[in-house]
Every structure is written in C-alpha cells, then in structure tokens.
Amino acid sequence: MPDTPRSTYRVQVRPGFDLDATAELADYLSALGVTHLYTAPLLTATPGSPHGYDVVDPRAVNPELGGEAGRRRLVRALRAAGLGLVVDIVPNHAGVARPEANPAWWDVLRRGRDSAYAHWFDIDWDRGRLLLPVLADAPDALDDLKLVDGELRYHEHRFPVADGTGDGTPRQVHDRQHYELVNWRRGDAELTYRRFFAVSDLAGLRVEDAAVFDATHAEILRWVDAGDVDGIRVDHPDGLRDPAGYLARLRAAAPESWLVVEKILEYGEDLPDWPVDGTTGYDALAAVSGLFVDPDAEPDFTALDGRLTGRHTSWQDLTHGTKLEAATRLLAAELTRLAAFVPELPREQVRAALAELAACFPVYRGYPPEGARHLAAARSEAGRRRPDLTGVLDAVTARLRDPDHELAARFPQLTGAVMAKGVEDTAYYRWSRFVALNEVGGSPAHFGVPPAELHRFATARQVRWPASMTTLSTHDTKRGEDVRARLAVLSEIPGRWAERVTDWMSRAPLADPALAHLLWQTAVGAWPVERDRLHGYAEKAAREASVSTSWADPDPAFEHEMHALVDRMYDDPELHAQITAFADEITPAGWSNSLGQKLVQLTMPGVPDTYQGTELWENSLVDPDNRRPVDFAVRRKTLARLDAGWRPAVAADGAAKLLVVSRTLRLRRDRPELFAGYRPVPAHGPAGAHAVAFDRGGAVAVATRLPLRLARSGGWRDTTLSLPVHECTDLFTGRVYSGSELLLDDLLSTYPVALLAPTDSVEAAA
Length: 766
Hints:
GO molecular function: (1,4)-alpha-D-glucan 1-alpha-D-glucosylmutase activity
Pfam families: Alpha-amylase
Protein name: Maltooligosyl trehalose synthase
Number of helices: 28
Helix content: 40-55%
Organism: Micromonospora sediminicola
Radius of gyration: 27 Å
Structural class: alpha/beta
Distance between the termini: 21 Å
Largest sheet: 8 strands, parallel
Mean pLDDT: 96
Strand order of the largest sheet: 16-15-14-5-2-1-18-17
C-alpha cells in the first residue's frame, strides 16, 4: 500500500449500512479506481447514532456497526481488493446524550471530582455542580423525577446515584448528586462543561492531557500499529486547546499514516505549519466550485437581493451580527467562563469585549505566527464598532497576547465555535444573494474564481500541500456538488433569474423574503426533488437562520406559511410547470459544470475524495439529506456498461459523470507519474476564457466553464489548445489526437471535458 492514498471514497458507515455492507463495496471501489476507503467514525457511538461523531466508548468498535469482528472482515475485504483504509477520528468531544452508554461520563456523574475520568472532560468544577440541561421548560419539571433500580430517571433519561445518597425522595436524592438537572434553556447560558459548539449532548475532551490522549486513542492506534489503517482524518481540531501539540503527539504515534485535518480555512488563509499532510479539502472545494461562477454577475445579484429583501446589508455586517449573536446567546456559558479570567474588571464589560473580539475575528482561530495579526485585526475592528469598550478591549487583548495566560489558551476555542455557529449555521441561511457560494470553507462575498486564480491556488498546493485532500461534497456541505453546479448557471443568466424569481415570489409570497429567495434557489438547483425532502430542508434552513422561527422557539404560524409555500411548488399546476421548465432550461449547462468541476477536483494537486454516491448525478441538500442511502447496485451496473464500451450521452442518468470519475481515478492510480507536477495550459482564440486546462506532468485536464455564455458567443470556433506531446488519447472518448495544437471544438464535441494522456501510457495502463 502507498503511504499516501492516490484517491479516497467516503462511506457513511452507520447502523443500517454497517461494516459488512461496506466490505461488500470493496470490489466496486477497486473497479472505480479509488485506492482507499474513507469511513465515518467507527468507535462506539450513542446507540442509534446516524453519523458516529458522538463517541461514547473509545475502547471498542461500535457493536451496531458489527464490532471488532466486522472491522476485521472489512480490512480483509479491502486488502483482498488491493485497497487501503482511512478512518475518521473525533478527538474534541464525546457523546453524553445517553449517560448510561458512556462509561466515563457515567462515572463522572456518579463520583464527581473524585472520578478517575474527571480529568477527561473540560469541566469547571469551581462553579458548583455539573449542570445537565435536560428538564422541560416548566417550573415543576423535577416532579417527574423517579428512582428506579438505584438510578434517577427523568422520562427516558437515566442518571447514576452516588454511593450513600440513595435514601429519600427522588428530589432529595437529586439534590445530593455531583450533577444538577436543569431546564434545557439554561444550557447555552449556564453550563459548566465545554461543549462541541452549542451542542450540550457533546462534551469537550481534554486530549491535551497525555493520559486522556492515550486512553482515547489506544484503539485507533492499535489498528495503525497492526497495519490495518493507512490514514487518519481528524475531526474539528479547532476545538482543541492545543491543536498543534495534539497533532504532534498524533504524528509521533502514527508516523507513517496519511494525516489530514478538518481545518476550515477562510479565503486567503494558509494552513498552519502542522505535522500533517493537509486539510480535508474545503479550500479546494471553494476554488473549484467558484471557477464555474461568472464574476460579472455580482452587481446583478446584489441589486436583486436588495429588491427582494428591501434592504442592502454587507456580508461583513451580517456576519458580525450573527457571530455576536452566537457568542452572546448560543455560547454564553463559554463566554462567562472566559470572562472569569479577567476578575479585576467588571464582568459584563469583559463579556462584551470578548464577544466583540470573537465577532470581529477574521478566521476561525489564530495560530502562531499569524494569530497575532488576526488578533490585531479583530482588536482594530472591535474598537471601531465599540469605542465605549476601548479600555476593556485593551486590557483583554493584552491578556490574549500572553501565551501563558489561561484566557489566551481558551479564547481560540471560542472564536472557532463563534465562526461556525455564526457563519456556517446562521449567516449562510440569511444571506441568500447567491446561495451557490454559501458553502463550508467558501466566501459568499467572493463572487467567482477566475482561471488564473485557480491556477495560482493549485500551483501553491503542488508545492506546499501535494497530499492534501480535495473534495466537492461531504456530510457537512450545505448542498451537493451537482446542486451547486446547476445553481452556478444562474450567474450566467442573472436577468432571466431575476424575472423568474420575482414573479414566483409575488405570486407565492413569504413573510421572510430572504428565506424565500433561498428556497426558490434550492428548488431549482435540486429539481425534481421529493416534496418531503424540500419540506425538511425548508424547516432546517428557516430554524438555522433564526429570523422568523428558530430551533429554540419555533413559530408555528410562520412555519405553516413556509410549508404552504413549498406545497404550492408541487400543487399549483402552473407554478409546478414553470419550475420544471426553468430547471430543464438550466440543467444541461449544470451538467457541463458538474463534469467540469469534478474533473478539475479529481486531477488537481492533492488526494481526491469522492463522497458516497456522487459518481452519478446527485441532488442532495444539507445533512441529514446528504446521508441518504446510496443505490450501489445501479452504480455497479452502470460501471459495467461503461467497461463494456458504452459511451453515454451527457444526460444519461449521470453515466457520463461515472465515466469521468472512473477513468480519471484509474489513471491516477495506475500512472501516478503523470500527476507529479502542475502547469497551466492556455487556450488561444476567441473562446479561450471558457477553457480551463492544466498539465499535471503528462496528464492534461480540460474543462468548459460558463457554457451558456460560450454558446451565446458562437461556441469554441477557432479556439485551440497547445499540448506538450504529439500524440495523446482522450480517456473519455478513446479518441487519439496527433500534433501539438488541438481545436477545442473537436476535442470537446462529445463531452464538455477531456482527460488527455500520452497514448503509450494509456495503452500500458489498459
């Protein structure tokens, strides 16, 4: 097995699609051309967990997935098919929704500070009992508490009873425990343990403690030592107290493993100089998807957004507001804990200063040496917005600049959570100017990526992070890659879109026009999408936006109106026909974008990941929609037809995408030397701006961008591409080309993409 994968395929291993079901994919994945299976977390998670990120016992494989025996069967199946394994690990937090399922948390609840596991969790014991936000929002909620089999029970919740405290009424027993059950609404404001973002069911772990690291990583590292694991994906390193120290310890424990981190980089931000191979690919996603968005459309969409919503708000001001909301509302408990580290100043002023700095922080969190620059930028902007806090801001910032101060160690954990909750989970649902850009790792204010910018990005990756992952879809993306690709078409027809959506919104109004614009874009991007899926998306989007309704306080009247709008899309014959006609109008160009962005992602520097099912057309929306079961039988049959010589039309149920994926991955697997460099290949002629091409060291990728504008301007005409070899073969059509100049009208006559390789290398691989 190579130390670095040449490609990966992500599978959401879960109850209902367990390790044995995953093992059955080994032959298909090998035929597809991937070199490594990349799994969701495999350790024991909360019973019934659909994702595995709520690990409750790091000592064993999840029995609901097949346990250790299932893991061994999977490894055997992969090795027999010539595949490696990359596993996802979750060092930042543990699942505590079901205390009885988490032995360490159960013991902490039972024994308090005296528990052998008390140091595992980031608990502020000095503030009193450990608060657990599980009670209903009612003054007499504790009256429902019961004593059963020596445990306290609150409806379906179970809690331990400390030794010698079990006599008396349930309320009396409760009052003697190391924990206190409180109203669920108090969670965001008063909790005494660090959480994952604002999720009270996920308690932060202290993996900076060597003993905690060893205990929580022993099983994973046992697999590594046994040669069963070739790579590790680290979930959410920004949540850790000391990510650099943690990654150094992990690298020392797994020196030969491919190691990537789920580090979200803001536009223009570089990955810190960590002992890792790169990120999980959101930076690549933003660059590649933006390539197919027309930057010239930005003024039109800005004007449309203003007309539809009746206001003009900058992205900077919007995100400042949503981040400040996240800091002061969702993460109020964390803010209070940090403010306590500046006891000599008024508590509320310190809280306000910290919240303002977090809201103004330009990246998820700062790391040396760039962290000082980011803190300075945050201080400057915070001072501009809150001149009344100048003295407190100066005092707080001085402590944040002191690496030995506890506040400096903990504040970065807050800024990352504020960015994630305030931007990804709120602003992305409020800012509906052009939602194709509202993606994890993206920058909605940065409208499109010109080819020259893509080439600069890829060249830098080849030099600095050649083994970093690339991706277009994950379980965390806000919409699937093909939905984004179709939405990108709207940037080529801003006037047409403005006409359509303005008419639809006037005929079917919604009290929240920004949300309505998001829903109409989502509908045409995913159409035809099942009604129940669009209803589910609408509800999640509206509650995440927290404008007209929210998770904490749903507004039944507004949500009824919103669901009625979704129903009209299906039940109003004229409206349904218009949506269908418009989606049909933009779909062919969307297919072109899908193939183009997929080819660029699979061939650019880095290790390309294919998210489960996305080798065919796929119209997933946000989680949990993107975790739906995948029909692998259809994909097997389609791949077999392609291998038998079938060359499908672009519109043939996504088979053309599977052709692109399989042929590209096979070439990367079989001829890695053709992907050892990076050089832009310019197109010459009247349509040169519509081609993006690059030479990876023998393999040349060619993709079409802005296909509608290309068609309107007369097509490729006399546009040519200069090739580095005199004879090459297009792996998608099998056509052989001779000479150093190729007419793009000829090369791209069958598909809007081409992958060229020296003919002798193609024959050798075949």
